[in-house]
Design a protein that fits this description.
Length: 210
């Protein structure tokens, strides 16, 4: 499957408590953290869905915006995935955290190419999974809703009811040599590292286009 036949769902919630401000809007290169991410996603996917409770902060972007749809529960990544999949126009959606600015187009295309028979396509590094850099089908929705009805918020706990394809990180190295696609900005140290890397990331992307 091509990425153009899919949606991208960006989770822009979270309290950013370790950063002291909305980290999505922190400057990064000539853009922001989320702006760098969206610059990649809007080129690749058929649509971009942004899940946030603060739509006014993202009004300059050409994205579909939604808040969490299930109320009366703790706000978390699972409620965000549910909202994004619910309003997405395509059966498959690539789901990513808004603080992961360096997703590689080639890696995303590789994951998309694996769609077809499975409900979830998720990268794995050893015993660790990347649920916020993964692809989900709308078939996941009733199983997510069942977890949320029990106030159960661990993403991996609905996988047993579906067809899940684990993609080993070694298989993805040809498409992202340093696996920067999985890097997220959690704290000031991560932010400093992102600032050091952003120009290299953009130069490598430009090299791939020319």
């Amino acid at each position: 499957m091509k990425t153009s036949e899919m949606s991208a769902v960006i989770l822009a919630g979270g309290k950013s408590s370790r950063m002291g401000k909305n980290k999505m809007l922190l400057p990064l290169g000539d853009s922001t953290i989320i702006g760098t991410l969206l610059a990649t996603l809007t080129e690749l996917f058929g649509e971009c869905v942004l899940v946030t409770d603060h739509p006014e902060a993202y009004g300059d972007w050409r994205v579909k915006i939604t808040a969490d749809l299930i109320c009366g529960t703790e706000k978390n990544s699972l409620t965000g995935i549910h909202a994004g999949l619910s309003v997405a126009s395509h059966p498959y959606s690539f789901v990513v955290a808004g603080d992961m600015p360096f997703v590689e187009p080639e890696l995303l295309s590789r994951l998309a190419a694996l769609c077809g028979k499975d409900d979830v396509i998720i990268p794995r590094q050893g015993e660790h999974f990347q649920p916020l850099c993964a692809i989900y089908h709308k078939n996941c929705l009733p199983h997510i809703e069942e977890l949320l009805s029990r106030q159960h918020y661990k993403i991996l706990d609905f996988f047993h009811a579906l067809s899940v394809r684990h993609v080993d990180a070694a298989e993805l190295l040809p498409f992202d040599r340093q696996l920067w696609s999985f890097f997220n900005v959690n704290n000031p140290d991560d932010y400093r590292l992102a600032q050091e890397f952003v120009e290299q990331f953009k130069a490598e992307r430009l090299k791939g286009i020319l």
